[in-house]
Design brief:
2 domains, alpha/beta, five-stranded mixed sheet, D-Maltodextrin-Binding Protein, domain 2
Length: 333
């Protein structure tokens, strides 16, 4: 965290120096990025280091409007790159095609979508997929409200749920993985696109439970407790090993950036992506996500260079696949 603030201070000093020297930061090439709050820490870290390296000759803005909100802006041509915690959907593909927006899909990391509880909770350290489904299904709304309704061994006290907002790719992925259909969820929970809001909710509520990206759990693990997930083969905690060997299922997932191919004609965009693919893996570790094999980052750059646009997912989220297998799939525009 200290290193994070030091980089921010250095970046500010670079900008001040450039302004004193008469170099306008406003006129520098601006790279516009928005989208997933899950991918945000990675892209923001890359953006900070890139701007320092370029000494003010490029400006990068990174917003957080959720994966769905990011794709809306991206497919309207309002941003150059969108962060996404799930693959592009068929509807989004159609919208991009309608607006003549072609894109290169780039996996940048693995994430372990993490279920968390308050540290004072000593009863639900392991939760099965069946129990999570019972807790989060639409039919549970206003009916399933106490812990013992999920598991008779748990207390007869009310639980409070916190989760990602409807525009979040994390919400889409979690509901599909647990309930079986994207966006299929009970509505009586506290929703936010800002994962820090969810962290605060659970940390202050003994009966709270939430889900979000692994990095937010690690950043706040003194306030939270991760739950082991049992998908039928025993309880498994999220970790680098369990994500990479595919035993943490079905909540491990690749996360992405999508690059507008027209934007990539600009020198600063190509330089930023090259910087991202070369410097990103170290920064991904720094912000507590899981870097991909080096070959994947090289392949991303090859796809950009060869203008290989489209998606390997065909508008669907594929559960339980290793990234090497995903990249072998044929691109579909």
């Amino acid at each position: 965290m200290i290193k994070f603030y030091m980089k921010n201070i250095f970046l500010v000093l670079v900008i001040i120096f450039m302004n004193i020297a008469g170099v306008s930061i406003v006129n520098a090439g601006t790279i516009r990025i928005d989208g997933s709050s899950t991918v945000y820490p990675i892209t923001e870290a890359v953006a900070e280091d890139f701007q320092i390296a370029k000494r003010g000759k490029a400006r990068v803005t990174v917003g957080i409007s959720g994966t769905g909100g990011g794709f809306k802006k991206f497919c309207r041509g309002e941003i150059d790159i969108t962060n996404a915690s799930r693959p592009i959907t068929r509807k989004e593909m159609d919208q991009c095609k309608k607006n003549d927006i072609a894109y290169v899909e780039m996996p940048v990391a693995f994430d372990a979508l993490t279920v968390v509880i308050n540290p004072k909770n000593n009863w639900s350290n392991t939760i099965t997929i069946k129990e999570l489904k019972k807790m989060w299904s639409p039919a549970a709304q206003n009916k399933i409200t106490k812990w013992n309704q999920i598991n008779p061994a748990w207390p007869a006290t009310k639980f409070t749920l916190y989760g990602a907002g409807a525009d979040s790719g994390t919400f889409d992925y979690f509901t599909e993985a647990i309930v079986g259909k994207p966006k299929s969820s009970r509505g009586d929970f506290t929703a936010s696109e800002d994962d820090n809001v969810l962290v605060q909710g659970v940390s202050r509520n003994k009966n709270g439970l939430a889900f979000f990206g692994f990095a937010y759990y690690i950043e706040n693990k003194k306030k939270l407790k991760a739950v082991a997930i049992d998908s039928g083969n025993g309880a498994v905690f999220p970790s680098y090993e369990t994500v990479m060997n595919s035993t943490y299922q079905p909540l491990s997932r690749p996360i992405f950036i999508y690059v507008n191919i027209k934007s990539a004609k600009r020198t600063e965009i190509r330089e930023f992506i090259d910087f991202y693919m070369h410097k990103g893996p170290a920064l991904i570790k720094e912000v507590k996500y899981f870097p991909l094999p080096k070959a994947i980052y090289s392949l991303n750059l090859e796809y950009l260079s060869n203008k290989k646009t489209g998606t390997v997912f065909g508008g669907e989220t594929k559960m339980g696949m290793k990234i090497e297998d995903v990249m072998k799939l044929e691109h579909k525009n």
